[in-house]
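The instructor's notes for this session suggest beginning with a concrete chain rather than abstract definitions. Hand out the sequence below and ask the class to guess, before any prediction is shown, which regions might be ordered.
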Amino acid sequence: MSIIALKPFRLFSLPLLAVALCAGLAGCAHVDRKLEAGRDPAALREVYVLTNLNDHRGMARRIVAALRERGVTAEAGPRTLLPETAEAVLRYEERWAWDFGEHMTFFRLTLSEPDQVRPYAVATRTRYVARSTDLASVVPEVVAELMAPAAGKN
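After discussion, reveal the predicted structure:
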């Protein structure tokens, strides 16, 4: 009698396991990069980070620190202070949500020529950052993906 009772469970256990696995994988952090052909962000030596007016979380400061860790000369500020020596301008976009505490839900970095608005390189993190996660680990991850060498990633 117990074998008959377990048979329906076995029939449903495989689909349930597959759904649980897909749900678990959907929760994984993912950084996607798009790069214009013929560009290599790894060759950049001086990048200027345009600060957002609503940057009360210090994201520009964190991005500058991550760039400097990679050996890139980086400064942050408004467009009016863009140095003539800057090889690229980095813009960032972040979205936050409140769910019993504030956490990041979206983070995008874009690189463009100093005199252009259209980006030639984009890195986007599409998974939220839990409140317990230190942004000091998230920002370098996305910066590393954006600044990775062009070979093999287009």
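Then share the key points. The domain at 29-146 is CATH 3.30.160.670 (Double Stranded RNA Binding Domain). Residues 53 and 78 are 9 Å apart (CA to CA).
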